[in-house]
Amino acid sequence: MSTKALSLSEFSTIISKNFIFEKKPHVAISFSGGSDSTALLLLMKKWIKKKKGKLTVIYFNHHLREDSLEEAKYLKGIVRGFKLNFKVLDWIESKPKRALMHNARDQRYKKIINFCKKEQIISLMTAHHLDDCIETYLMRKQRKYCTTGLTYIPMINSQECVQILRPFINVKKKRLIQTCKKNNIRWINDPSNSNENFERVRIRNFLKKLTTDKINTIEQELKNNSNKNLTFERKLTKFFMKNLIFHDYGKFSLGIKKFLCESESIQIEVLKKILVTCSGTIYPPRYRTLEILLNRFKNHEKFKFSIHSCIVSVNDEHMECYREYQKIVKSIPEKIILKKNEKFLWDSRFIIESGSEDVLCFTMKDEIWLKLKKKFNLERIKKKMKFDIIKTLPVISIRGKFLIPFLSPDSELIKHLIKVTFYPKVPLTKKNFLNIN
Questions:
Q1: Cβ(37)–Cβ(128) under 8 Å?
Q2: Cα separation of 359 and 368, whole Å?
Q3: What tens digit of pLDDT does each residue of 229-261 get?
């Protein structure tokens, strides 16, 4: 049976069924020059013209290969030939020796999303497809992910007010290749796609050896797990709404008895989600570490435990979780200058913005607290905030005056047009909306 190219009509149906745009939409595409993103470019070019909108094509140069600059010039020529806007974003910072692909992905999203926000583009499209979902599923399965990890890459999710749209998530890669062939356009083959040092490449090569029936079985398994995941997510959301107390300065409180009444799968996922959100990270702690923590809960121990850059403190009745101070000291500068009308994500958890003038943001130190303790002590006692938690907050200096968000009076922050908001990379409950056909 021959593989069908994805038609504009079918593509338009996917978009109208799943996505919402502004009138005369301005959409950005993350473009690598591969067959997937080239198919997306071809179809979106036609779709956006019908909608009388605007398309901006973004190429992210990781600077990991010697020919990356030549590749960028080549792709620029293709896109400009289509009479579309083309923007190159660069990762010129030093590259980590470990987890290179994870860091590359994080940098790509960060810089593309920042560009979209600057240009007031609220919709970003990527060319992730069904084969990517299957590969991700198998990778996570090998790592023994919990229920919520064994699911589709979401068709829609949001990051910092930019909606990320993946119209190909239920489309197989071979159809995208056929779409390029039908339109007589060439694409680039990234040499890293053949490098078995990368886990995804090993998984991809493993899948190539399987029969069609076996791949269909894996696909159905993924679909079943995704449906289970939706039910599981609803249970988690209900549990959090009933039992979790969240303080906007980054502390999470949970009743032990209610927690231990839940199934172990729910308990593990509750801990995982709280730790990811509290730490401001993306990736969850190891399953084995979570099991060790959970066993201490079940043994009714009183303890203070360092895990996933957080402190978990447990007594007879409650668990408290907050950021680990030593991890803050190691990961962010001691002093940061925040310019007027700019925003800064402090410790990957708090968005700080100043609307009146430039301010300084400090990491809390013992010597700073000794100077400020008398001024803030009454408010600290009133709010029952331990110093271990106060240390995890930024200290803001404006014209020699010191402010501590969530401890200083709100009126002081408003007076100086300073706003501090808890904004972790991954929210406690899912913002992703899956589309499983």
A1: no
A2: 17
A3: 888 888 888 999 999 999 999 999 999 999 999
Give backbone dihedrals phi and psi of 396, rounded to 5 degrees, phi first.
Answer: -110, 130
**End-to-end CA gap in the chain:** 22
Q: Which of 263, 346, 351, 277 is nearest to 308 (CA)?
A: 277
Q: What is the pLDDT of residues 173-211, one digit of tens each?
A: 999 999 999 999 989 887 777 778 788 889 988 998 989
Instruction: Collapse the DSSP code of 27 into the 3-class scheme (helix H, G, I; strand E, B; otherwise coil) and give the result.
Output: strand
Residue 435 has a pLDDT of 36
| Residue 160 near residue 348, CB atoms below 8 Å | no
Q: Do residues 268 and 290 make contact, with C-beta atoms less than 8 angstroms apart?
A: yes
For residue 147, the 8-state DSSP code is: G
Helix 287-298 with 264-279: angle, nearest 10 deg: 110
Q: Is the dihedral of CA 401, 403, 409, 410 positive or negative?
A: positive
Residues of the chain with CATH 3.40.50.620: 8-209
Q: Residue 100: which of 198, 170, 30, 215 has the closest Cα?
A: 198
Choose which CATH entry (3.30.40.10, 3.30.70.360, 3.60.10.10, 3.40.50.620) describes domain 8-209: 3.40.50.620
130 Ramachandran zone, left/alpha/beta (phi>0; psi -120 to 50): alpha
Mean pLDDT, all residues of the chain? 89
The per-residue pLDDT for 201 is 86
Q: May I ask the CATH class of domain 238-323?
A: alpha beta
Query: In this structure, are residues 277 and 310 in contact, taking their beta carbons and an 8 Å threshold?
Result: no
135 near 202, Cβ under 8 Å?
no
- Report the 10 Å Cβ neighbour count for 413: 19
Residues 316, 405: Cα–Cα separation, whole Å: 30
Residue 414 sits at the vertex; the CA angle it makes with 412 and 417, to the nearest 5 degrees, is 115
* Structure tokens belonging to residue 58: 């973004």
